[in-house]
Amino acid sequence: MIRFSELYVGGRWVAPATDAVLEVRSPHDGALVGIAPHAAPADVDAAVVAARAAFDEGPWPWLDPRERRAVLERFTRLYAAHAEELAALVTAENGTPSWFTRWTSATGVLAQTEAYLRAAAALDWEEQVAVSEGGRTLVRREPVGVVAAVIPWNAPQQSALVKMVPALLVGCTVILKASPETGLDALVLARIFDEAGFPEGVISVLPAGRETSEYLVAHSDVDKVAFTGSTAAGRRIAAIAGEQLKRVSLELGGKSAAIVLGDADLPAVVAGLKGLSFGNNAENCVAHTRVLAPRSRYEEVVGALAHMVAGLRVGDPADPETFIGPMVRADQQRRVRSYIELGIAEGARLVVGGPEVPAGLESGHYVRPTLFADVDSSMRIAREEIFGPVLVVIPFDDEEDAVRIANDSEYGLGGGVWTKDSEHGLALARRIRAGWLSVNGATPTYDGAFGGFKNSGLGREFGATGLAQYVEYKTIAV
User: Fold this and answer.
1) Which region holds residue 138: left if phi is over 0, alpha if psi is between -120 and 50, else beta?
2) What contacts 412, CB < 8 A, 6 or more positions away?
């Protein structure tokens, strides 16, 4: 068991303002994983004071960008050495299978960080954009200020570093507000930041619930909020930020569509959708949870998916053979099961799974991976983000119909097209109103931009575009 008695505030380990604690329990069997302090508004005040002083008085924002990069490169090396430890801890905290947490920690997080480092090395921090008889015009890129990074529990290390690394590279100071379900790995991350040697005040890490989050978001000395989470929470944050004209970026929910064209290689489709639809227990905002299949091959697609879904191994997330672990909390388990019951009530055909808890796993927050067919895009199971392993298959008549159905959503985060003609797939992907698309399961690199259209968010992450989210532009005429 891991026990933290202090919070990381402004680069120092300090006693929390209250005696409140977070008990982190395994969603697999309820065992106590660890205890951490529950940060209170008073802890937020202390973190903001430290961050404000470090930003306004330096030296972090004033360093040569190469010096900041060197500190982040040192942090990245230290992080790599702790990747396995962090992966195991996240699995214990939130039930994400070890295959996914190991990939995220050892590959995904390091690749996204390296892309940010490349973007920062190539960034022109001050450039001359015009010269005239009267003088010249310069454009400078400067850090936005004190950043509140507010993250969820479903991919906590990736969510933290996708915000913290670009903010720090630009010269911002950062307060990470971690979810109570995954407060332990956040404080282990603080240890790594501490070892990397950031100046005093630059980084704080506060595990806490919603009340403390809202207090941080609304704090008048926070210049920018970077948030990942539900669309409902994003709307609340946007409203608070709007009142103060505070900068904000929001990575929110999704209901991504995978269009399977008539010429698609079905075994490749099914192999790809196994990860794209069910990775991270499908507690994943970009999961491809709507499969659009042509009527000419509809039952063939449903049958192939049914075989795959029925074969998903559900169980202890620490077991490397497990593909689907438990839902993070009992209320999340109930929510997903209620959607399965809703799908049956709406008239969808239950092909695999169902609302019953998997046999032998009653001590954890488990649900059965579920596949629905004969789904209409007006059904709630086809429109609302379930955030669990529930896949729906919707028929389409032709490509125009497929594009219409894919775009008939309040969300626009991800999606994909499957076809033997990749150039045709690309043309179709261009017509889908979403921010993160793949053709035949190809994975975009971290040098691209990640984020959503419509109710899936504001702003982008990854690479040069993500770095720019933490920049203010200043024009100077000389």
Assistant:
1) beta
2) 254, 433, 434, 435, 452, 453, 454, 455, 456
Cα 255 to Cα 51, 313, 317, 391, 409: the distances in Å are 37, 24, 25, 10, 8
Evaluated on CA atoms 210, 213, 218, 224, the torsion sign reads negative
The sign of the torsion formed by the CA atoms of 4, 6, 7, 8 equals negative
According to DSSP, the residues that pair with 226 across neighbouring strands are: 149, 249
Q: Which distant-in-sequence residues (6+ apart) come within 8 Å of 392 by Cβ?
A: 289, 290, 291, 343, 348, 371, 372, 373, 375, 379, 381, 382
Of 470, 474, 473, whose CA–CA distance to 167 is shortest?
Answer: 470
Phi, psi of 290 (to 5 degrees): -115, 115
Between strands 146-150 and 135-143, the pairing is unpaired
DSSP string, 212-278: HHHHHHH-TT--EEEEES-HHHHHHHHHHHHHHT-EEEEE-----EEEE-TT--HHHHHHHHHHHHH
Task: Find the DSSP H helices in 314-398.
Answer: 330-346, 380-383
Query: Which segments in the chain show pLDDT lower than 70?
Result: none
* C-alpha closest to that of 302 among 373, 353, 396, 398: 373
Going from the C-alpha of 325 to that of each of 30, 254, 275, 366, the distances in angstroms are 13, 21, 14, 7
* Helix or strand (DSSP H, E) at 142: strand 135-143
User: For residues 215 and 140, is the Cβ–Cβ distance under 8 A?
Assistant: no
Q: Report pTM.
A: 0.97
CA dist., res. 76 & res. 72, Å (int): 6
Residue the block writes with tokens 């999340």:
332
What is the reported pLDDT for 130? Answer: 87
**Residues belonging to the active site:** 251, 285
pLDDT of the residue at 206: 98
pLDDT at 364: 98
pLDDT of residue 133: 83
Class for the domain spanning 257-450: alpha beta
Q: What is the pLDDT of residue 296?
A: 97
The sign of the torsion formed by the CA atoms of 270, 275, 276, 282 equals positive
Specify the pLDDT at position 227: 98
| Residue 79 near residue 129, CB atoms below 8 Å | no
What pLDDT was estimated at residue 132? 82
Locate 104 and state its tokens. 């995220």
Q: Which residues of 404-419 are buried (b: 16+ CB within 10 A; e: fewer)?
A: ebbbebebbbbbbbbb
CA torsion sign for 393, 397, 398, 400 is negative
2-252+456-477: CATH architecture: 3-Layer(aba) Sandwich (3.40)
CA dist 202 and 48 (Å) reads: 10
Helices (H), 311-329: none
For the chain, the domains span: 2-252+456-477, 257-450
